[in-house]
């Protein structure tokens, strides 16, 4: 699902059928219709910052509605693209412009973790347009950067690997091939 109809041809070229809709304004019933019949929901939408009310409306509220819609539609798999430092104890100062986003993401992530869905929360570090490395570091203590293309490849890898269910995976660019890096090593 995309908001911008100008992106439809790119989506088709990638092998998917685009659906143009504004998730900010769809209720749970409408979202049930959107996700029904699919194998998974991947949440990678975001308000883009700047407006606190819109950030909460998209990054928290719309995300939570899609989780609830997935559960109602019988779509068990849900992958949340969050950010490296996301947690209820994110430590972002309320005066910082990033605070609303940190709050929204932590609340959405928490809702997902408390759900019955087969969830994975991905925590990529700072996104870049660098060429993909095809490898990530899931053991880093601090966020650095990761190519957007490697985030997309990580989404695909966790969808293909059930050992990622009910796990939070934070990552930077690294040296371990993505599929190997996300596999549960416990």
TrEMBL record:
Which InterPro entries does this chain map to?
A: NAD(P)-bd_dom (IPR016040), NAD(P)-bd_dom_sf (IPR036291)
Task: Domain (NAD(P)-binding): give its ranges.
Answer: 1-161
Which SUPFAM superfamilies does the protein's record reference?
NAD(P)-binding Rossmann-fold domains (SSF51735)
> Which sequence ranges are marked TM in the entry?
none
On the tree of life, the source organism's domain of life is Bacteria
* Entry protein name: SDR family oxidoreductase
């Amino acid at each position: 699902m995309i908001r911008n109809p100008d992106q439809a041809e790119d989506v088709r070229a990638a092998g998917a059928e685009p659906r143009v809709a504004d998730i900010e304004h769809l209720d749970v019933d409408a979202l049930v219709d959107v996700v029904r019949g699919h194998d998974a929901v991947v949440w990678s939408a975001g308000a883009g910052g700047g407006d606190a009310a819109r950030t909460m409306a998209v990054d928290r509220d719309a995300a939570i509605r899609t989780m609830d819609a997935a559960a109602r539609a019988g779509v068990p798999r849900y992958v949340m693209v969050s950010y490296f430092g996301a947690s209820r104890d994110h430590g972002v100062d309320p005066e910082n412009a990033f605070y609303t986003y940190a709050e929204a993401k932590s609340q959405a992530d928490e809702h997902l973790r408390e759900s019955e869905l087969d969830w994975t929360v991905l925590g990529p570090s700072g996104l870049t347009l660098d060429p993909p490395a095809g490898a990530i570091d899931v053991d880093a203590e601090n966020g650095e950067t990761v190519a957007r293309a490697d985030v997309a490849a990580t989404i695909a890898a966790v969808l293909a690997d059930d050992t990622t269910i009910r796990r939070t995976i934070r990552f930077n660019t690294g040296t371990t091939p993505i599929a190997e890096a996300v596999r549960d090593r416990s």
